[in-house]
Amino acid sequence: MPSQFNLKTILDLADQFYSLNDIQVNKDKSVLLVCQKRSTVPRCLRNFDPLPVQLKFGNSTINITPLEKSESVRILGVLFNYNNSYKNTIKKISAKITDIALRFARKQITEKQLAYIFNAVIIPHIEFWSQTKILLKNILYKFMAKILRVFKHKLHLAFSAPNITLFRHIFRINTLLDNHTQAKITNFLIQINSSDLLEKLSLLQLAQIQYNNWLPYHLLYFLPYFITLTHRSNFLIQSIVLCNNNNITFYFNTNFLPYVQEGNIPMIGILKDTYHKHNHNLKQLNILFLDQILNRRAQIYT
């Protein structure tokens, strides 16, 4: 299999790097994530557990079993899985907040101390764990509600008391939604405006999505709704959506944004919501603008 051969090549390079830098690695703790579409797996094999795989890692041979779909691997404290699912990350954050809420509800600390712990400890932890994910508003609201219940308990307030009384004007509590939005937008802007390899890889990935979906403009400049639906787990796409929802737009720059100069009337502007049903056929015909069809007809008649 070509993919397994490529994996062996990567492992050989990694082993050479470890040897060159005198780094000791426990190869038996290696984890394997298999990215394979469900439609490519025979129906009779979909419900079976993954089988062990034998891989050559430098001078060693390791037996490794691919993780199941529901499993995640932790890399530097951040959870990853094969389909970039949010579930395990959300479970981890929810469990941490619940643990903190139960722990500090009984502690003899003031509400100001609790506010400091929330701003200086809890928020940075959540930001770190979710740095590769963009969490939905309703999830962040649920997390925030658990924290606010502890504050109201400490202040002997009714749980139905307005939350606005606890925010910036009194205890200077940052909201999870505001912090999450600010952190994700800031990191994304740094990512696409950096002068290193990260910028090139990010723009290249966006350009690849643009080409695969046969779009006339770069996704930073023009993001159709169907792209946001088909790429819900794509961090770059969801970062653009987050920027657009907060009235942050990107100006067109021909120096780095791919742009196909074939016409003035794109086909997506004519087909609109049905474009995603026909873009594959248009791609095969190499038609992106209405001008291409009109020019061909004009050439035939002349």
Tally of strands? 4
Query: N-to-C SSE series?
Result: HEEEEHHHHHHHHHH
Shape, please?
flat
Oligomer: single chain
Structure description:
It comes from Rhizophagus clarus. A hairpin with a 2-residue loop joins β1 (53-57) and β2 (60-64). This protein folds into three domains: 2-68, no CATH class; 76-184, no CATH class; 198-301, no CATH class. The chain has helices at residues 2-20, 87-105, 111-129, 137-154, 176-193, 197-212, 225-230, 235-245, 267-271, 275-284, 290-301, and strands at residues 53-57, 60-64, 73-75, 78-80. The model has no long low-confidence stretch (mean pLDDT 79). It has 302 residues and is mostly helical. The protein has a two-stranded antiparallel sheet. The chain has a two-stranded antiparallel ribbon with strand order 3-4. The longest helix has 19 residues, at 2-20.
